[in-house]
Amino acid sequence: MENIKKQVELEKRSCNVILKSKLSFRAILVLLFVSVITFSVSAQETEDNYKAFSGHLSLRNMHMWHGYVVTPGVMTATSIEYNSKNSKLTLGLWGGASFDGSYKEYSYYGVYRFTDNFCTEVVSHNNYSSIEDPEIFSYDKMSSPNFVDVALIYFVSEKIPLKLYWGTIIGGNGQDYEEDENGKITDSYSNYVEMKYRLWKKEDFSLSAFAGGAFSFTTEKTFYSERPNFVNIGLTLNRSVEVLSKKIPIELNAIWNPESGKGVLQIDIPLF
Questions:
Q1: Does the pLDDT value for residue 232 go beyond 80?
Q2: By the 8 A CB rule, do 164 and 119 touch?
Q3: Alpha helix (H) ranges present in the chain?
Q4: Please, are residues 252 and 236 in contact by the beta-carbon 8 Å criterion?
Q5: Residue 9: its pLDDT value, please?
Q6: How far is CA 205 from CA 112, 175, 252, 268, in A?
Q7: Contact 153/165 with Cβ under 8 angstroms?
Q8: Choice among 26-30, 176-180, 203-207, 260-264 with the minimum mean pLDDT
Q9: Which of 99, 104, 170, 251 reaches 20 to 30 Å from 127, CA-CA?
Q10: Do residues 63 and 75 lie in contact, with contact meaning Cβ atoms separated by under 8 Å?
Q11: 244 pLDDT exceeds 50?
C-alpha cells in the first residue's frame, strides 16, 4: 500500500513538471516529429545506406528562369529534399537570396518520375522580394506573390539526346492574367514550352542548345511576354572542374530573350 502511494505521488510530481514546462503542445509535436525523422533516417542508413534527405547549395552570378531575369545580382540557391527509396518521388524546399538583399524567394516543389525518361514537376513559386508584408500561404492573384507551375518533362534517349519540357501556370498571382480596358480580368494560364538538344559530349564536357517559347490559349499576354513569342534561346555548357581532388560540375548558360531584347551569361556553381 505504501509503495502504491509513493508511485502516485511520483506520477503527480511528473505531471506538475510537464504542466509547468514552457514547452507548448505545438513544440512537443515538433520535437516528436524531428525525433521520428531522425530515428527513421538513422535506421534506413544503417540498413542499406539509403539517405532519404539531402541538402544542396549553389552560387550563381544571377538568376534567370524561362528567359525571365528574376534577379541580375549574385545570389545563392539552397534546397532541402526528400527522396523516396525507389527514387520515383522527390519533395523539396527551395530558397533563393541575392547578396544585396533585393531578391528573396521561398518555394516548394515535387517531382514524380514515371520512368527514367519521363516525369512531372509541380512548383509553388513564392518570390516576395518587393512585398513588405507577404502572406506566405496566400494564393490570391491580385495580392499574393505565390503561383503554381505544373510541368511535364521527357528525355528521349542517349542516342537521341533531346529533352522536351512543357510547363503551365495554373494558379496564384505572378501577374498571369490580362486586363482589358473595361477592367475585365482573364487568366492566362501561361504555357512555356522548351526543346533542348545535346550537341556534343566528351568526358566531362557537354554542349547543348535550347529554345523556349511562351503562349496562352486564353489571352494575348503571358507571364513571360506581351504576345506569343520565343523568350529563351541559348547554349548550355556543362563541365567538371577539379578542386581539392573533388570534381565540381559547373553549368554556364548563354541566353537570349527575343521578347525583352536581353542577353545574359548565367553561371551556376554547386558547392555541395
A1: yes
A2: no
A3: 2-20, 25-48
A4: yes
A5: 52
A6: 28, 38, 11, 15
A7: yes
A8: 26-30
A9: 251
A10: yes
A11: yes
Task: Count other C-beta atoms under 10 Å from residue 13's C-beta.
Answer: 10
CA distance 95 to 108: 9
Confidence of residue 174 (pLDDT cuts 50, 70, 90): low
- Which residue, 209, 208, 266, 210, is CA-closest to 238? 208
Cα distance from N-terminal residue to C-terminal residue, the chain? 63
- Nearest CA-CA partner of 251 in 241, 236, 264: 236
Per-residue cell: 267: 553561371
Q: Cα separation of 262 and 150, whole Å?
A: 26
User: How far apart are the C-alpha atoms of 232 and 167, rounded to whole Å?
Assistant: 14
Q: Which three cell numbers stand for residue 205?
A: 564536357
Q: How far are the Cα atoms of 82, 204, 239, 245 from residue 242, in angstroms, in the given order?
A: 28, 11, 10, 6
What element of type H or E holds 172? strand 162-172
Lowest-pLDDT range of 15-19, 43-47, 102-106, 179-183: 15-19
CA distance 72 to 57: 19
Q: Is 192 exposed, middle or buried (0-12, 13-18, 19+ CB in 10 A)?
A: buried
User: How would DSSP label each residue in 124-158?
Assistant: EEEB-TT-SS--TT---TTT-SEEEEEEEEEE--S
